[in-house]
Each structure stands twice: as C-alpha cells, then as structure tokens.
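INTERNAL AUDIT FORM
Audit reference: QA-55
Scope: verify that the stored structure record matches its stored sequence.
Auditor: D.O.
Record contents follow.
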Amino acid sequence: MQFRHSKTGCKRENREDSYYRCGLFRAAICESASSLSVWANQKNQTELSYLLASIVNPAFATYNATSSEIYEYLRKLPAYEIDRAAHQIHLMEKPSDIQILKGVYWGPVIEHEHKGAFINRPMYEMLEDGDVNDVKLLIGVNSEEMLPSDFSNLGQTIAVFEDDLELLVPNKLNAKDSDKAVIAQKIKDFYSPLLNFSVNQRQFIKYQSDQSFARSILKATELESRWHDVYVYEFEYHGPLGKFADTPFIGFSDDVRHTEEISYLLCHSYPSLNTTDVTKYPVSDQIVQKIMTTLFTNFAKYLNPTPEKMDILQNITWPSVIPDNFQYLAIGSWMEVRRNPMENMYRFWNEIFSTYGQKPFISY
C-alpha cells in the first residue's frame, strides 16, 4: 500500500504505470494528484540540466558539452551544490511559467528506450491502453485546490495572463499555434465571460484549480477505472482543523484549499497548527476526522473504503467508478454519493482536448 499526497502522489501513479514496479504494490491512496497532472512531468529536462550545470560552473554556458558530459559532471557534484543551484532556478520562475501550471522543474520525465528505463511512454497513452499494473486506487481532490492563503501576488499573475490570454492554453495540449488564440478565448469565456479576471479573481483561481488538479485527476480516474477499482472523493469540508477556517462550514464548502484534508488524516505539531489533540476542535471537525481515518484505513486493510455498513460512515456504501457511471463520494459535514463530479468543467475540457489537442498526450 502506498499513501501519497500532491507531488508525491503523481510519483505514486508513475510507479504504478511503470513495468518495473509490477507486483510490488496492491493498492494506493493518491490525494490531489495523478500522473496526468500538468505539473507532474517535465518535457524540457535537457535545457534545465544544462542550465543547472552552468549555474554551478559558468564554463558550461559557453562550452558545447554533450548530454553525457553534463550527466557525468552533475552526478559527481555534492548534493548541496545541486540543491543550491536548483533553488536559483526556482527563483527565476515567472508568472507566465508557473511550475504548478506548466510542469515542476524536477518532475518525472519520459526516458528514451533503454534497459532500466522507468517510464518510456507518455503517461496518458499508458493509462488509455491499460499498460499499467493492477493496483486498486483511492484518489480525490479538494473543492478549490488553488485558493491562496495570501492574495498579495495574485493580481500580478492575473495581469500577465490578461496581457497574453494564450497562457491559459495548457502547454501539453499540443495545440497548433494557429488555434491558440481561439482556444484561449474559449477558456476565458468559459470561466469569466463578462468580466476580466482582474475583476473576477475567484474565477481565475477556479481556472488554476482545474488546470493544475481537478481536470487531470478526473481523466486519470476515467481511464484507470477501465482496468481496476478506483474510488473517488471530493473533499468539501472546511473547518478549523484544516487551518484556514475559524468556524466549521455546515454542508459542502467551495473553499477547501490544497492540503486541508491532510489534517483530518494525520496529526500536525506546528506553531501555526497543532492537531495532536483533536478534542480541542469543534465536534464536527472531530467527526470528519473520524470519517476520513476510517475510510482510508478500511481501504488500506480491505481494498474497499466501505466494506460493511458503519454508523460513523452514515451506513453509506462508496461505489467504485464504472466506465460511463462516474460515481464519487462528496465529503462535507456529512457525506453524499453523487454522479459526475464537476460535470460542466470536465465536459468543457474534454471538448477542448478532443477538438484541438494533438496526441500523444503526456498529461491532461
């Protein structure tokens, strides 16, 4: 059993996709990520490797080194030098090249065919063809993953995107340059048809959440459900235990940020958030914490989050996804089994990819 969140979650799915992990895992829990996440792979790894080497040793900026020479040089460096140079590259990040929207610098890569290659095919194609290991999966997303806790830099990012709407187009859609202006306008009109994003900031945040998390997780679920059991949730509970709420939200909240669900599964002991004693939190937070730990431990033990009727789980049966019958569990201050998560958004992006996308897709 693997239990992974966010960036480590995409690595979990890549391990599942890889032939070299065959038989090592029987199940996995993957929160807020999939191998199809747009940030979960890097297609410019060669340029980044040369840049990394040139930061450590400026001679590489002018010396026409081979990739083998770069590799041998980097593998002999102390880890702290690589880490320091990588941090400098991180500081070069611009609003137009946000890693969470475009691809993390040091993410998984597709290798050329060779003995020992870990991933040598686009991840989307592997899931579509069933070229994956039979690993049962519990996967999910929070209701607004990209809702920031600090809005101070949001206006700057929005201004860059409004100056060049084509930045809205996913770089791994592989769209023709001649189509990008049309695609960008369709995306803008879907999220905020009447107002600029600078006025309607919440819809830009919604675009970011869908682009970086929700869309790819739903597509990975759709594809994986053809080959093995997949259980999907949307976490919509917003309470003080998750750090970003002063009082519990009764019902299902649209304001659940990235990582909020973690506090309902694991204890934290940070200066800003101490959850080691959940009795200090509202009763509804304690109930949701018990629900989450029960669902996840049931899956770890029985490969089914609801193997039997349980009062703490409202006697609900959480169904796995069946192709053409996409059921999922909405987790708020109570739980509901629903169909077709984020239906309008998912339909819109499916149309964009089917109309303008050019395979092979790496992500979605």
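Auditor finding: record pair retrieved intact. Strands lie at 2-5, 27-31, 136-142, 230-235, 327-331, 335-339.
Action required: none
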